[in-house]
Amino acid sequence: MLKRTRSLLCLCIAATLSTPQVSYAEMDLPDIGTAAGATLTIDQELIYGDAYMRMIRASSPIINDPVLNEYIDSVGHRLVSSANDVKTPFTFFMIRDRNINAFAFFGGYVALHSGLFLHAHSESELASVMAHEIAHVTQRHLARRMEDEARRSPATVAALVGSLLLAIAAPQAGMAALTATTAGSMQASINYTRSNEKEADRFGIATLARAQFDVNDMPRFFGRLADEYRYASKPPPMLLTHPLPEDRITDTRERAQAYPPLRVQPSISYHLARARIVARHAGIKSDAAMDWFKRTARKAPPKIQNSFEYGKALVYLDTNQLDKAEAILDKLLEHDPNNNFYLDAASDLYIAKKQPEKSVKLMESSLKVKPNNAVITINYANALLESDKTDEAIKVLQRFTHDRPKDTNGWHLLSEANIKLGNSAEDLAARAELMALNAQWDKSIQFYSQASQLAELGSLKQARYDARIDQLLVARDRFMALQ
């Protein structure tokens, strides 16, 4: 299961210094104005971002898919390492929602709706949306908007932050809350948002260029969305929170044309991710998914044809047509034996065929090529568990959750493994961590308290549980103080 990519400031500075000089278009960027430090510090943004992420985990259908997470992290990391003014780590995640949308919030969190993959035709089109959201974070648009509102109203920082965070995920409710807590005019807020949108486009397109994506795919994607929903009675959420007036599209088109032409080859990884979403996360029936693969493949270039075969294999796998799935996956692995999309599917296939030991061997071989890779490691742990090698699985999962404490899949598997061994205390501890990640602090503390009561009196295990309870009490109080 994939670790969330953390791109630190020093890494981004080094990457920026090492990138080649690009077009003069980057020099024509707007004045970013206030740093917003008077209202909200970077440390405060990180605290608010972590709190809101826990709320989202509890309330939204987040896609905890190891290979998809690895893919969006790789694209996100590539963009962040080419962005300016990076002051926070970044976390990219996906929400299962067929509506086209993306949003960013405090602390470097960037959410993508799975519906984006159904409408973006290339990796550069997806990257253009991600670069735009990264720019909202690096230019501190939420904090700057809050500072602008604070100058015109007596609202507290907490009230403003709460309203702005609400506005990210629920624009209508958020704007209503913002109006209730501020004395500023609605029109001023809207105009400020529009200026931020243009600024995010301009910084985003510069990031795209440095990261070697096709900058023309930003106006191309925006223009297609605007044309498709121009007369729609109910536009997608992305057009409600990110309006696309003609001048914005024109601005991005002119800016893209100022960069030297760059021929970008189709990304097989993007199309594999897209196929996985169509097969498993688009909410459509298997027959419809299979029809989509067949129709789309007819118009696609040879370079990405394997992505459609992969999608068919997933449909066969998920509908228990295992021999058909195996025939396709064998060919794909022969062509690209180290591809994590194929390896993950093969692991699922062997487990479905009641041959988990084959998955164990495959993952052990893959780990020699990619030590500590999150996708391979979590598949390895799952295969060990299915092979009744539960003690070995627990050792792998203990290291995995230590290295990736915010990856919920690791905790789920660790809970399952301890249930299998009848280790109630460790099962409770794993479930407590899941509760904490969802901001269910009282439940988390309750589970750890129960685990402590089950542990031997005075043991190191009991001391570990009690120490974690103390940490959770502090975290709960800090979280509650934000409201």
Automatic annotation (TrEMBL):
Active site positions, chain numbering: 133, 201 (proton donor)
Highest taxon in the source lineage: Bacteria
Cofactor, free-text remark: Binds 1 zinc ion per subunit.
Any one annotated GO CC term: periplasmic space
InterPro entries: Mito/Outer_Membr_Metalloprot, Peptidase_M48, Protease_BepA, TPR-like_helical_dom_sf, TPR_rpt
Cell compartments where the protein resides: Periplasm
Keywords: Hydrolase, Metal-binding, Metalloprotease, Periplasm, Protease, Signal, TPR repeat, Zinc
Cofactor(s) needed: Zn(2+)
Residue spans of the TPR repeats: 306-339
Binding site for Zn(2+): 132, 136, 197
EC class (word): hydrolase
Pfam families: Peptidase_M48, TPR_19, TPR_8
Molecular functions (GO terms): metalloendopeptidase activity; zinc ion binding
Domain Peptidase M48: 68-255
Family under the similarity heading: Belongs to the peptidase M48 family. BepA subfamily.
Functional summary from the UniProt entry: Functions as both a chaperone and a metalloprotease. Maintains the integrity of the outer membrane by promoting either the assembly or the elimination of outer membrane proteins, depending on their folding state.
Protein name, as recorded: Putative beta-barrel assembly-enhancing protease
Organism: Vibrio chaetopteri
